Amino acid sequence: MNKSFFIKNNNSRCNIIIKSNYIQNYLNKLIRKKRKIFCIVDINVKYLVKEILELDNCTIIFIKANESIKNIKVYNKICEKLLIKKIDRNSIIVAIGGGTIGDLVGFVASTLLRGIEFILIPTTLLAQVDSSIGGKNGINTPFGKNLIGTFKQPNEVVIDTDVLRTLSKREMKSGYAEIIKHALIKDFKFFKWLDKNYKKIFNLNNKILREAVSKSIEIKLWYVKRDSKEELISDNSRAMLNFGHTIGHALETNYKYSNKLNHGEAISIGMITEAKISQKFGYLNNKNLELILGHFKRTNLKIFDPQIKNKKTIDILLNDKKNSNNQINIVLLRRVGSSFFKRNIDIKKITDIINKI
Ligand SMILES: NC(=O)c1ccc[n+]([C@@H]2O[C@H](COP(=O)([O-])OP(=O)(O)OC[C@H]3O[C@@H](n4cnc5c(N)ncnc54)[C@H](O)[C@@H]3O)[C@@H](O)[C@H]2O)c1
Ligand SMILES: [Zn+2]
Q1: Which of 117, 148, 163 is the endpoint of a domain?
Q2: Which ligand has the minimum distance to the alpha carbon of residue 230?
Q3: How many Å lie between the centroid of ligand 2 and the Cα of residue 75?
Q4: How many domains is the chain built from?
């Protein structure tokens, strides 16, 4: 099954292609264009560029990717390397790697020379179902995640689930967390389907995996198309995609983005905590909470970390770019498949609930 999506905003358009065994062909075709190509590649997938390594119009920069590369120093270094190699506004930048490479390179491409065409080739499940979709680019600061960034769609996203064969089980689970998030906020049927098929996803059954990736992208695009810049007009806002992320990001920041807790693990804990908050406030009934907890336990997703009770995590929560005046804005659930944005909850109420978990 090949599939493609197309998204158009005011001044940008993006093709999303889902195809098997395709990346090397795609790159071979791309470098035939009479334009300078700059590939920024995660060292873990360097085999993908082996056929285009020594070409005149193609510069390749390898990076050992992890969350800590999303910072201003690495951003500077990449910009300088590209400028030394005489990048111009007619060049194309290609990011090949997981979400950290995609976020960072997207930020480079959308700012360098006031914006250069770019292509994302996501190689983790998380990047395929989430981070490469929707045009958010950015880097972290010690004050929090993604606090510096841009909204700019890549020109193309090329998704090939075959590259996931080398991905660790831990990273597969991290990506799965974003898939289940899409089901929880918007699609009960998809949740039930995942509950039936999750083993096949983890075992890399190509057909099921592609179906999960494609459905996930469809849900994310549904929100992006309605609210590309997260302007929070209604419960159809892109902000719903932040379910699990308010607490998840605070945890990640507390862990200083170290490998002790990856993004999917942090938001898994965040989703369960925010589901519990939804239940304590009386929005989500016990049956739905049990459904969610049951699925997280079966799939072995993380549901707790003692650091959520740490005062530092709470302080970071208050610094979240969405919050102010000791009050928290957060996405909650009404039931599996339905979410809404709750404004101005007193932080004390949240900490009371968290401390009893
Ligand atoms: N922009 C957005 O809308 C958005 C949405 C969700 C998440 N994100 C961001 O995405 C980032 C997380 O992305 P991630 O989980 O992909 O992390 P990552 O890029 O660090 O990749 C995880 C690990 O997998 C390795 N890897 C990548 N592809 C591989 C492959 N095919 N085989 C073997 N190893 C491979 C990487 O080298 C890395 O060690 C976070 O920074 C998060 O904030 C952004
Ligand atoms: Zn996320």
Answers
A1: 163
A2: 1
A3: 21
A4: 2
